[in-house]
Every structure is written in C-alpha cells, then in structure tokens.
Amino acid sequence: WGFVATRAARGKIQGMPYGNCLLLSDGPVNNSTGIPFFYVTPKDNTVTDLLKNPMASLTLPEADGNFCRKNIIDPEDPRCARLTLTGQMVTVPPEEVEFAKQAMFSRHPVVRKWPRSYEWFFMKMNIEHIWLQSW
C-alpha cells in the first residue's frame, strides 16, 4: 500500500490537498518493474481527482520493511525511510491490462473478490520525480 496525494476536484475542498491509502503493485513477485499499478474505482474520491488532474504523489513508508521491524522502531521514526514518487496517474492502456492484472492479483489476491459493481479499472503512475528520505 501507499499514500496517494491529489488536488481535490470536488465540493468545498476543491483545489485543496487530498490523500488516500491505496493498494499497489509494481509487478508480479518474480517481475517487479518499479512502475506502480493500482486497481481503482471511480467511486473513490481520489480517482475522481485524478481523472480531472492526473498529477499526484505516492509515498511509500518503510513500515513493511525489515529494518524498522527488526530494530523495533516505530515506522514514523525518521530512521525508517520513506520514498515519494511524483508524476502523472494514467489509465493503463489495453495492451498492458493483462500485466497490471497479474501484478495486482498476484500480490493482493483478495481484490479478486471486491464487488464488480464498483467498475474497477487499472491506473499506473508515470514517475517524473523521486524523493528518498533516508536518515
């Protein structure tokens, strides 16, 4: 999972920062690409924002990494790294959908059971900037 930040495109918070945690995958376990793929629904406010303005940032905490866990350090401690990727979120083109499906479903099998009525589709981030906070 990661934290995706957008610029709100709706209601009283239009134009303000908005964020949400989303599941992601950069490929099947044996074929990581470094490109974040997301399985999203237009019912999610984050997706509504992205469809109007595709610029976003994605922050990945080291909460799941070994260093913080092994050393019993809180994930918010500055010694636990954070990676922030910034770029454009785009709908995955038809020729990449099968790869995106394998990427997401192999790492997060539970998403196969999510309600189909939510009109799920795949997005990916075209990374433009990388910032690593590692003290």
Report on this model:
Its main location: secreted. Residues 1-135 form the CREG-like beta-barrel domain. With 135 residues, the chain is of the alpha+beta class. The chain has one domain (2-133): Electron Transport, Fmn-binding Protein, Chain A (Pnp Oxidase, Chain A, Roll), CATH 2.30.110. The protein has helices at residues 45-52, 66-70, 97-107, and strands at residues 2-7, 17-22, 37-40, 55-61, 82-91, 121-133. The longest helix is centred in the last third of the chain and has 11 residues, at 97-107. The mean pLDDT is 92.
Question: Concise description?
Answer:
It is found in: Secreted. The chain contains three helices and six strands, in the order βββαβαβαβ.
Q: What's the number of extended β-strand segments?
A: 6
Ends apart, CA distance between termini: 22 Å
How much of the polypeptide forms β-strand, as a percent range?
A: 25-35%
Question: Sheet with the most strands?
Answer: 6 strands, antiparallel
Could you tell me the mean pLDDT?
Answer: 92
Q: According to CATH, what is the class?
A: Mainly Beta
Helicity level, as a percent range?
10-25%
At the fourth level of CATH, the homologous superfamily is Electron Transport, Fmn-binding Protein, Chain A
Family: Belongs to the CREG family.
Organism: Aegithalos caudatus
Subcellular location: Secreted
Main location: secreted
Write the layout of secondary structure elements.
Blueprint: E1 2-7, E2 17-22, E3 37-40, H1 45-52, E4 55-61, H2 66-70, E5 82-91, H3 97-107, E6 121-133
Antiparallel strand pairs: 1-2, 1-4, 3-6, 4-5, 5-6
